[in-house]
Each structure stands twice: as structure tokens, then as C-alpha cells.
Design brief:
The protein is mainly α. The chain is 72% helix and 0% strand. The protein has one domain. The protein starts with a helix and ends in a 13-residue tail after the last helix.
Length: 172
């Protein structure tokens, strides 16, 4: 069951998670890879084949090793991409769920949560912008946190899935 304190931690972690999403998207779009051609070239140049062959000739053993290395590198690249994609998907689902639940709050409560937790604005700035006293801000924030926590508790009771797969203190 998610508490008000855990809900606050989830909201506070939102900006970091959005940053992580962008980092993971970049890594998926620009994966660090060694090309197959570069791997084979690096293994095949530099010394003549064993047994007195001509300079630049690739031995069967070297070619077999290069091919095995190529296959292993392709497998590692695919596994890395799959891990990045899984982490990205989990973070996207978590942040989209939070954004959706916030959109279900009253407009005032949603603005308070977004300005303070997502944009990192001070209570003073939020109060000035929304023309609210500190007491009203605190009251609205408390009601918003209670409502959000109850939304998460409801989903947890229906699916048995705490935060839809996310942990209260952050993802992994």
C-alpha cells in the first residue's frame, strides 16, 4: 500500500526519471557498436598467417575466431538494446501513469503538483502564480497526495501490482 510519504518520493523522482527516459532514448538511437568489418579487419591485419603464409592472408583459424567474435558482439549488442528498451518502457509507463493520475486531480491540485514537483518551483513562486496562501497550498497539496495515493492503492488492490511495476523509492 502506497503511503503519502511514498507518493511524495514518487513525485520528487519524476524529473530524474524524465531525464533517464531521454538518456535511454538517445542510447537506443545511438548505440555504441563496433562494426563487423572493423572487428574482422582488426583481427586479420598486422601479422602473416601461421606456417609461413603470405603477408595479409587470413588463416582459417583467425577467420573462425573473427566470425565467433562477430556473432558474440552482435548478441551482446542485441542484449544491451533489449535491456535499454525494457528499462525505457518501464520508466515511460511509470511516468505516463503518474501524469495521467495527476490529470484526474482538480485543476488547482494538478497545477500545484506540476509546478512544485515537476518544474521544481518554490512554494513562494507557486503561491504567487496561483494567488494562494501557503496554508491553502499545503492543504491542496495534502489532498492531492491523498487522492494520488488512493488511486495507486486502488490499482494495487485490483491488480496486485504495486505502482504498476515501479518501486516506491525509484526504479531499480
Amino acid at each position: 500500500m502506497i503511503s503519502k510519504q511514498e507518493m511524495t518520493a514518487l513525485l520528487k523522482s519524476y524529473p530524474q526519471k524524465k531525464l533517464q527516459i531521454e538518456q535511454l532514448r538517445y542510447e537506443l538511437d545511438h548505440p555504441p557498436r563496433v562494426s563487423d568489418h572493423d572487428m574482422i579487419d582488426s583481427l586479420s591485419t598486422g601479422s602473416p598467417a601461421m606456417g609461413g603464409g603470405k603477408n595479409g592472408r587470413i588463416s582459417d583459424k583467425t577467420m573462425m575466431i573473427a566470425t565467433q567474435y562477430q556473432d558474440a558482439a552482435q548478441k551482446l549488442n542485441a542484449e544491451t538494446a533489449a535491456q535499454i528498451n525494457a528499462e525505457l518502457q518501464a520508466l515511460v509507463e511509470e511516468t505516463e501513469r503518474l501524469e495521467h493520475y495527476i490529470s484526474l486531480l482538480s485543476e488547482r491540485q494538478a497545477l500545484i503538483i506540476q509546478r512544485y514537483y515537476f518544474e521544481g518551483r518554490s512554494w513562494s513562486d507557486v503561491g504567487l502564480e496561483l494567488h494562494l496562501s501557503r496554508g491553502t497550498l499545503n492543504g491542496e497539496r495534502g489532498r492531492a497526495l491523498d487522492t494520488l495515493a488512493s488511486m495507486y492503492r486502488f490499482i494495487e488492490s485490483v491488480s496486485g501490482d504495486c505502482f504498476g511495476g515501479a518501486e516506491a523509492d525509484g526504479h531499480k
